[in-house]
C-alpha cells in the first residue's frame, strides 16, 4: 500500500475514518480530516466532542484513521484495544481488512502541529480476531509537551497488552528535529527484529516483534484536562499533516 493523498477523496478500500468505534459508535467516532494539496490533515477543532465521554478517563478527543476494524456483538467484550477490563462493545462492527501487515515496512512522512495537551501517532496493532493478537508496534508518538524549538522526544517500540509473547519495550528518544517540518517515520520488521527509523536513520533496534497481522492506526489526540499555558488552550487546533503513508 502506498497513499500520497493525490486523490480528492479518502481511499475507503484502505482507510476507515473512525477511531475504535466498537466502544462507542461510527457516528460518534468520525474523524475530522481534509485532503488538499496532496496532503491528509487530521485535526481536532474546538467544537469536537469527547471520545467515549462516559467511559474514558482522562477525557480525550481524537481524530483517527485505521486500516482494520473488528468486534464481537454488542454487549460482548470482544474488540480492539480495550482501554479497561470488562469494557463492552456498544456498537457491533462490520469486519474490515483494508491493510494488514504481518512483516515488512510501514511509515509516513508528516508534519505535526501540537500544543502542550495534544499528541500525534502512527502505530500498528493486532487485528485481535484472537485476544492474544493484541500487541502494538508504535512507529512514532509525539506529545506536544515534549516538543522544543529544535528537538522533540519521539516515542517508539512495543506495547504488549494481552500478548503474552511480546515484551513491553517502549522509549521516548530525543531527536534534533523540528516536528512542524516534514519528516519520515518508519518501522521495518521481520520474524526476528524491528528497526525504527527517522529520516532513514536507525534510532532503535528491538528483538522479537509481533508475529501476526497488524493494522495501521493514524491519529491526533487532545486531552482537554491537561494544562496549556502556551498554545491558546481550547482555541488551538492540533493537526497531523501527512504527505504520504506506505506499507509493504
Automatic annotation (TrEMBL):
GO terms for molecular function: hydrolase activity, hydrolyzing O-glycosyl compounds. Residues 37-248 form the GH16 domain. One of its GO terms (biological process) is carbohydrate metabolic process. Transmembrane segments: none annotated. It comes from the Bacteria. This is GH16 domain-containing protein. It comes from Leifsonia soli. The lineage of its organism: Bacteria, Bacillati, Actinomycetota, Actinomycetes, Micrococcales.
Amino acid at each position: 500500500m502506498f497513499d500520497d493523498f493525490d486523490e480528492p477523496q479518502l481511499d475507503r478500500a484502505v482507510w476507515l475514518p473512525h477511531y475504535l468505534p466498537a466502544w462507542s459508535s461510527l457516528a460518534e467516532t468520525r474523524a475530522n480530516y481534509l485532503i488538499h494539496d496532496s496532503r491528509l490533515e487530521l485535526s481536532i477543532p474546538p467544537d469536537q466532542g469527547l471520545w467515549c465521554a462516559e467511559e474514558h478517563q482522562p477525557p480525550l478527543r481524537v481524530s483517527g484513521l485505521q486500516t482494520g476494524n473488528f468486534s464481537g456483538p454488542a454487549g460482548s467484550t470482544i474488540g480492539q484495544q480495550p482501554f479497561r477490563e470488562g469494557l463492552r462493545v456498544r456498537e457491533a462492527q462490520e469486519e474490515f481488512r483494508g491493510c494488514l501487515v504481518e512483516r515488512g515496512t510501514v511509515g509516513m512522512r508528516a508534519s505535526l502541529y501540537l500544543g502542550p495537551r495534544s499528541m500525534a501517532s502512527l502505530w500498528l496493532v493486532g487485528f485481535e480476531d484472537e485476544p492474544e493478537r493484541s500487541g502494538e508496534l508504535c512507529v512514532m508518538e509525539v506529545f506536544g509537551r515534549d516538543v522544543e524549538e529544535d528537538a522533540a522526544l519521539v516515542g517508539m517500540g512495543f506495547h504488549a497488552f494481552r500478548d503474552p509473547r511480546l515484551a513491553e519495550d517502549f522509549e521516548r528518544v530525543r531527536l534534533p528535529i523540528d516536528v512542524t517540518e516534514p519528516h519520515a517515520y518508519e518501522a521495518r520488521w521481520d520474524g526476528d527484529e524491528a528497526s525504527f527509523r527517522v529520516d532513514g536513520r536507525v534510532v532503535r533496534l528491538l528483538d522479537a516483534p509481533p508475529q501476526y497481522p497488524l493494522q495501521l492506526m493514524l491519529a491526533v489526540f487532545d486531552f482537554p484536562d491537561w494544562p496549556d499555558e502556551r498554545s491558546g488552550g481550547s482555541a488551538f487546533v492540533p493537526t497531523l499533516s501527512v504527505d504520504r503513508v506506505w506499507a509493504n
